[in-house]
Amino acid sequence: MVMMMLKGNEATAYAAKIAKVQVIPAYPITPSTLFPEKVSELIANGEMKAEFIPVESEHSALSAAIGAAATGARTMTATASQGLALMHEVLFIASGMRLPIVMAIGNRALSAPVNIWAEQQDTIAQRDSGWLQFYAENNQEALDLTLIAFRVAEDERVLLPAMMGMDAFVLTHTMEPVDVPDDKLVEKFLGPPKPKYPILDPTKPATFGAFVFPEHYMEFRYSQFVAMEHSKKVIDEAFNEFKELFGREYKKVTGFMNEDAEILLVTMGSMTGTAREAVRKLREKGEKVGLIKLTVFRPFPKEELIEITKNAKIIAVVDRNISVGFAGAIFTELAASYNNIKEKPKILDFILGLGGRDIRLEDYYEIYNKAKESLNKEVKEINWINVDEEAVYEVEGPL
Amino acid sequence: MNFENQEFFAPGHRACAGCAAPIIVKWVLKLAGPNTIVVNATGCLEVFSTPYPHTSWRLPWIHVAFENASAVASGIDAALKAQGKREGVNIIVFGGDGGTSDIGLQSLSGMAERGHDILYVMYDNEAYMNTGIQRSSSTPFGAWTTTSQVGPFNILGKNEFKKPIAEIMAAHKIPYVATVNPAFLSDMKMKIAKALEIKGPKFIHAISSCTTGWRHDPSKTIEIMRLATETGIFPLWEIENGDFSKMRLTYIPKQRKPVEEYFKPQGRFRHLFQDPEKIKEIQKMVDEWWAKFENKN
Amino acid sequence: MKITRGVVITEPGSTALEETGSWRTFRPEIRYEKCIRCMICCNYCPEPAIEKKSGENYPVANPKLIKMEVPVINYKYCKGCGICVNECPTKAIDFVREEK
C-alpha cells in the first residue's frame, strides 16, 4: 500500500487501476473530468493496462460500457450532473440487463440554472434506475467505495450496476491523503475480471436485449427488485471482507454520539465532516444530539436506519437535493420507512447546499435549534436553510 | 471458409411477408460466418427477430437502445481487445435509416472517427417503419409517410431531400463505404465480402424495400429495388478512404429507366402523378447526380 | 413461467419454433419440370423458407440437371410473399390460393 495525496477523481482513477478495470469509456464533464484525464495518463505511462474509449457523449459512454460489460470485461466510467442525466435511459437498461458496471459520479447540481458545484440531485434523480448507490464522505471513501462497488456489483447474487457519489470540488478537486491499496490485495478482494454471467461469445451464441411482452416483463423487473434486496446482505459481507483485508470499516449507516441522542442529524456525503464537528460542539454544551451518516442510499437501508433512529425524539434530515413538488429524497424515504410503525420520532426535512452553497457549522446549529423548537411547537416540515427566501418575492412581475 | 449454405438467421421471425431486411441480414451473416458478434439498433429488425422468449439469431447478438448501437459496438471492440480475443471476430452493427441517419448519427460518427474495426450495415427502408411509417431524414423527396401526409396544404409529401448518409460517412475518410442493393446480389456480396476483409470502420448503405410502408405488392420487393438502381435513383458505388475523386460506380445502366417506372408500383408516390412537373423535377435531380459522378468513372 | 437473468435468450434460432406458414393466403408451388435449379428463389426468400435438397427424386426437363440440388419450399415458414414467384426467370413457380 502507498500513501498518496489525491483528489477525489484521482482516487477513483487509482481505484480503477488497482481493480484492473479493463475498459473505460468516458466523456469529459466538470467535475469528473480529471478521471478520464488521469486514466489516459496512467495508460500512457504504462501504469495501467486498460482500453480507454474517448466517446463522443456520456450517453455513448454508458452504452459502450454496456457493450464492454456484456462481452465480459470489467468496466468503469465517470460522469456528473448533465452527463448523468443524459445517460438516463441507458441507466435503466444497464440495470435491466444485469451488468456490473461501476460509475463514479462527481455529485453536481443540475441545470437550469447552470451550475458546476456540489449537490446530490444528479444521482438522487436516478434512484429509480436500479443502480446501487454509495456516497463518499472523503477521498479515501471514494477509493474504497469504488472497490466495494465492484465487489457487490459483480457478486452472482446481485449482478446490478453501482454508482459511487462524491461531492463536486469538495472531494473531486481537493487533495487528501489516501491509502492506495496494493493491487494483489485488491485481486484477493475482487477476484480476476472473470464474468459470472452469460456474455457475447461466438462459441456460445446468445441474444441480449430481446423484446418482452406483458406476460414476462413484470417477472424480469421483480427479479431485479429481488437482486437488490439480496444486495443488502452482500453489501454487509463486502464491508466485512474489506475490513479484514484493508483495515477500514464501513457500514450502511454509521452513528456518531447517537446512543442517547434526542435529536439526530442525518447526513450523506462530504457534509458529514462539518456535521460531526457541530455535534461535538453541541454536545460540549450539553445538548443531546447525535449524527447518523448514510453511506448506502440504494438499496435504501430501511432496517438499519429505523434501528438506529427509533429512540430519538426528532430526526433532522439534511437533504442536498430537492424534488420540486414534494421534499428531499432522504426525508421522503425515511418517512416512508417509518410509515407502518406506530411509535416513531418526528421527522423534519432540511434543504441545504444546493448548487455548491457551503454547508456551515452555523447551518447545523440552525437546524438543531429548529429541531429543538419542534419539540414544543409546530414547525414547518420542509425547511430551506441559508436561503434568502425574500429574494423570491422581490422579483419583478410574476414569480 | 465458406458459410453460404448455413443459415445464421432462423425463420419463424415476424417480419412482414416480403420484407427486404431479412434478405440483407442473411447474406451479410453468410459472408461473415459464425465468428461474429451482432449489435442491433431498435427498429423493425430488432423487434421482429427477438420476441422473447424466442430469437432468430444464431450468433451472439445484443440490442441496447435506438441511438447507441455504434457506441455499444465500440465497447465490445474495446472489451475483446482488453481480453486479447479481438483477432478474427467480426463486429457487425445493423441499424435502420432512423436509427442510423437521425438519432444514431452521433454515435456512428464517433465510432467512425475513433477508427473502430466495425462493419455498420444500414438497412434503409426510408422511414421509421417499426413505429408506423413516419418520415426520417432518409425518406426520399416526394414520398408520402404518416408524418409527411399529402393534402392540398402539402402536395409533395416530404419536401426535403434524402440525407446522403453514405456520402457523409465517406467524408469521415473511413476505409470503405459502399451502397448495395439486394436485387444486385453479386454486387452486394462482393462489397460485403470486401468490407469484411478490411480493418477499421466500414459503412454499407443497403436499400431495403418495405411492402407495408412503400405500399407495394410483397412479391415485387426485389423488382422494385432493382428499379431503384436501374432508374439511377439508388446508384451503386464504393468509396475508399474518403477519396471521392476515385468513387467507383459498380453498376452503370446502359440506359437509365425513367423515374416514373420506379414510382408507379409504389403507393407512397401515387400523388406525384397528379403533378407531372414534380416527376420532371425529380428526374432532373437524378440526371444531375449522374452528370456529376458518372464522369469520374 | 421461465425467465432468464438479464433478459438473455440462450437458445439460438428459437423462432424456428414459430410456424409463420399460418400467415399465408397464397401458396407458391414449384413446377420442377420448368425449374432450372438457378436458386434465385432460394437466394431471395426472406424467411428463409426455401431449402436446398438433393435433386434425385424431382422431375426435371433437362436430364443434365438431375445431379443438381433443387429448391424445396418449407411450408412451415413460407408467408406467401410471392417474391420467388415474381423473380423466377422461367416462371416455374405457381402462386395458388391457399385452401383452408
General description of the model:
The complex is a heterotrimer of chains A (399), B (297) and C (100). By secondary structure, chain A is an alpha/beta fold. Chain A folds into 2 domains: 245 residues, Thiamin diphosphate (ThDP)-binding fold, Pyr/PP domains (Rossmann fold, 3-Layer(aba) Sandwich), CATH 3.40.50; 140 residues, Rossmann fold. In chain A, 40% of the residues lie in helices and 19% in strands. In chain A, strand 14, helix 12 and strand 15 form a beta-alpha-beta unit. Chain A is globular. The model of chain C has no long low-confidence stretch (mean pLDDT 94). Chain C has a domain of 67 residues: Alpha-Beta Plaits. Chain C has a two-stranded antiparallel sheet. In chain C, strands 3-4 form a two-stranded antiparallel ribbon. With 100 residues, chain C is of the alpha+beta class. The longest helix of chain C is centred in the middle third of the chain and has 5 residues. Chain C is built from 2 helices and 5 strands. Chains A and B meet through strand 3, helix 3, helix 5 and strand 9 of A and strand 1, strand 2, helix 3 and helix 5 of B.
How do the strands and helices of this protein lay out in sequence?
The complex is a heterotrimer of chains A (399), B (297) and C (100).
Chain A: E1 2-6, H1 8-18, E2 23-26, H2 34-44, E3 51-54, H3 58-70, E4 76-79, H4 81-86, H5 88-96, E5 102-107, H6 121-124, E6 132-135, H7 139-153, E7 162-167, E8 176-180, H8 183-190, E9 207-208, H9 214-246, E10 253-256, E11 263-268, H10 271-284, E12 289-294, E13 296-298, H11 302-309, E14 314-319, H12 329-337, E15 346-351, H13 361-373, E16 382-384, H14 389-393
Parallel strand pairs in A: 2-3, 4-5, 5-7, 6-7, 11-12, 11-14, 14-15, 15-16
Antiparallel strand pairs in A: 1-8, 6-13, 10-12
Helix pairs in contact in A: 1-2, 1-7, 3-5, 7-9, 10-13
Chain B: H1 21-32, E1 36-40, H2 44-49, E2 61-63, H3 69-82, E3 90-96, H4 97-102, H5 105-114, E4 119-124, H6 165-171, E5 176-180, H7 185-197, E6 202-207, H8 221-230, E7 237-240, E8 248-249, H9 260-263, H10 276-294
Parallel strand pairs in B: 1-2, 1-3, 3-4, 4-6, 5-6
Antiparallel strand pairs in B: 5-7, 7-8
Helix pairs in contact in B: 1-7, 3-5
Chain C: E1 8-9, E2 26-30, H1 40-44, E3 50-53, E4 70-73, H2 83-87, E5 93-97
Antiparallel strand pairs in C: 2-5, 3-4
Quick one: how many beta strands of chain A? 16
**CATH domain topology of the largest domain in chain A:** Rossmann fold
Order of helices and strands of chain A: EHEHEHEHHEHEHEEHEHEEHEEHEHEHEH
Helicity level of chain B, as a percent range?
25-40%
